[in-house]
Design a protein that fits this description.
Length: 614
């Protein structure tokens, strides 16, 4: 949430900052701003709304701003204070000599603000961040040492933050520090880049250092000093970033979301590579460090996640219970952390997260870790905070996901759950070998089936045009595809703002059926298998209430044409693996409806890709 960039070196900072912010736009896009130092003067440029507005503002003064070889920038997802120009970062102090950008929430900002106001600080914004700017300025007034000022200020701040600070009187220095919010320093030749996330800097350098909590980096064009909050010198741990700049291109697709949907066949291949080597060989999952006896003795698994990752976790519950016979509870992280949870050393706690930075999930896994549970993390970001908390880490290898609406990372998470379930079932001997072999064979065939769906999108496009103007949408399914219904509905509401809800088909008649009339589309996920007839009969009930019926099915049953106005077909697939295939047309449906309505597909309103605040 919110993106930070910084640059210090021998090049002009302006384009590096704007470019970095462009690649962090998925983190928020309410407003944006930069601070530079031109002719020994700190200058702020800010704009409300999309980043383009800031680009337009800086274009008016480009020749002047370009002179600065130091700068910090910010793209905002508003928490405290409306998304206005005044509340946009960077923030400054009374004299305007300090400029800071911040990601996170300062919990004690009201107390700090009251204290600073008494000392004469004049606040311009409603943000929590501005308190930090005044606080650092007041510390600097006493110490004349920017690193010391940041260190003293951070001792008074409660909450989460990643901060970048410049000061007019120390014109060749940027200070970067963090606590419970991600920040990394990219290392170039005579230059340093700072960013909340890799995409902002990968074009410039692959060498970087991730800051840990309470570390302070003091950067000049030719030096980097790392200290902790008690002034101890630390040795920077420099890493090679595992990403390629090409991941950030749309590769000819109109939107990142469409590109990422089309990447899914290869994502499945990547997740399976090296783990599922042959149908008659056991799955290899060296990433799971829990020893075999502990796996055999597990009495419970708890999975914590949010949003789309939560839906992947729900598929995970279904397959682990089915194949491993272990009780699995799935809970939104934001609920898990505010109640008494029962975990012990025989409980495996799994955190699922695309970003690995979702604040609620980080808190949930830390809570479970403190009770002695083994923590397994399934994430697309092996470089994330969550990955670093893991006892076992399954990186899902979907590649950087830029579109705010998660698609390929969901696929990768779901496939990882299949591998985990098979791996544990093979250790426990909890299911017949033939059943596991059938599932493995289906997994190997899955990429081709997804390709088939992607090459026959016409049904989906027709359906999207027909239903794009609906105000509401209902998705129904049963069993293992209930999470598919929830995820299909989430995708649609996220990017088209249509009020969409997923229900278990059997629940329809216990209340939701009252909403059905000739204006309500009901999409039934009708995959052949144990609950096919049941969903069909629930669909008949909905049709009898005049709902407009859509089927997503792998059945050739001729009676479907009478019942359904639109039929979206998927290839034959074993019911147990069907969530991984059935979700693809639903992602496409949401995409085409959003595109048809002219919505901002990749950056839907009010959302941010990485939710780093609780
Ligand atoms: C939906 C979406 C969000 C995220 C949720 C959790 O398309 O992207 O619902 O799934 O914010 O984020 P991660 O997976 O990064 O923990």
């Amino acid at each position: 949430m919110c993106g930070i960039v910084g640059y210090i070196g021998n090049k002009s900072a302006l384009d590096i900052l704007l470019d970095g912010l462009t690649n962090l736009e998925y983190r928020g896009y309410d407003s944006a701003g930069i601070a530079v130092n031109v002719d020994n003067q700190v200058e702020l440029y800010k704009a409300e709304g999309k980043l383009q507005n800031l680009k337009d503002v800086t274009a008016l003064n480009r020749a002047h701003i370009e002179k600065s070889t130091i700068g910090i920038g910010h793209i905002r997802w508003a928490t405290h204070g409306a998304p206005t120009k005044t509340n946009a970062h960077p923030h400054s102090c009374n004299c305007g000599r300090v400029a800071i950008v911040h990601n996170g929430i300062i919990e004690n900002y009201k107390e700090l603000r009251a204290k600073l106001e008494k000392q004469g600080c004049v606040f311009r914004s409603q943000t929590d961040t501005e308190t930090v700017a005044h606080l650092i300025a007041s510390k600097f007034a006493n110490t004349k040492d920017l690193a010391e000022a940041v260190k003293l200020a951070s001792k008074e701040i409660e909450g989460a933050y990643a901060l970048c600070v410049i000061h007019q009187d120390v014109k060749d220095t940027i200070i970067a520090t963090r606590r419970n919010a991600p920040l990394l320093v990219g290392i170039g030749e005579g230059e340093y880049y700072i960013a909340s996330d890799v995409p902002a800097i990968i074009k410039y350098t692959k060498k970087a250092m991730y800051l840990d909590d309470n570390q302070i980096a003091v950067l000049t064009p030719n030096s980097m000093k790392l200290i902790d909050i008690d002034n101890n010198a630390l040795t920077p741990k420099i890493e090679e970033l595992p990403w390629e700049p090409v991941a950030l291109s749309k590769m000819g697709y109109k939107h990142f979301m469409l590109k990422e949907i089309h990447e899914q066949p290869n994502v499945v291949r990547n997740v399976l590579a090296g783990k599922l080597r042959a149908i008659d060989e056991n799955v290899i999952l060296n990433e799971v460090t829990l020893d075999k006896d502990r796996i055999k003795n597990l009495n419970r698994i708890q999975i914590v996640a949010c949003g789309t990752s939560l839906h992947a976790a729900m598929v995970g519950k279904y397959i682990i219970e089915q194949y491993c016979g272990i009780v699995v509870d799935v809970e939104p992280s934001s609920e898990y952390i505010y109640r008494k949870t029962i975990t012990d050393k025989n409980t495996l706690v799994i955190g699922v997260s695309q970003s690995g930075e979702t604040a609620d999930t980080i808190t949930a896994i830390r809570q479970a870790k403190s009770k002695g549970s083994h923590i397994l993390i399934i994430t697309n970001r092996p470089d994330s905070t969550m990955a670093r908390e893991a006892d076992s880490l399954i990186p899902v290898s979907a590649g950087i996901e830029v579109s705010v609406a998660a698609t390929k990372s969901y696929m990768a998470q779901v496939i990882s759950f299949y591998l985990l379930a098979i791996y544990m079932a093979e250790i426990k001997g909890s299911v017949a070998v033939q059943d596991l072999e059938r599932l493995k064979k289906e997994l190997v065939l899955l990429p081709q089936k997804i390709e088939k769906v992607l090459s026959h999108k016409e049904d989906v496009q027709v359906c999207a045009r027909k239903f794009a103007n609906s105000k509401d949408f209902i998705f129904i399914a049963r069993g293992i595809n209930f999470p598919t219904a929830l995820e299909g509905a989430l995708k649609l509401k996220e990017i088209s703002y249509i009020n969409a809800t997923g229900y278990t088909a059997g629940e329809l008649k216990h209340g939701p059926i009252a909403m059905l009339d000739e204006s309500m589309p009901v999409l039934s996920i009708l995959v052949k298998g144990g609950v096919y007839e049941k969903i069909l009969s629930n669909s008949e009930e909905a049709k009898a209430r005049n709902a407009r019926m859509i089927a997503l099915t792998n059945s050739e049953d001729t009676k479907l044409t009478d019942l359904f106005e639109c039929i979206i077909r998927i290839p034959e697939i074993d019911e147990m693996l069907s969530p991984a295939l059935a979700i693809v047309p639903l992602q496409l449906l949401a995409y085409y409806i959003s595109e048809f309505l002219g919505k901002d597909v990749d950056q839907p309103r009010n959302l941010a890709k990485s939710v780093t605040v609780e």
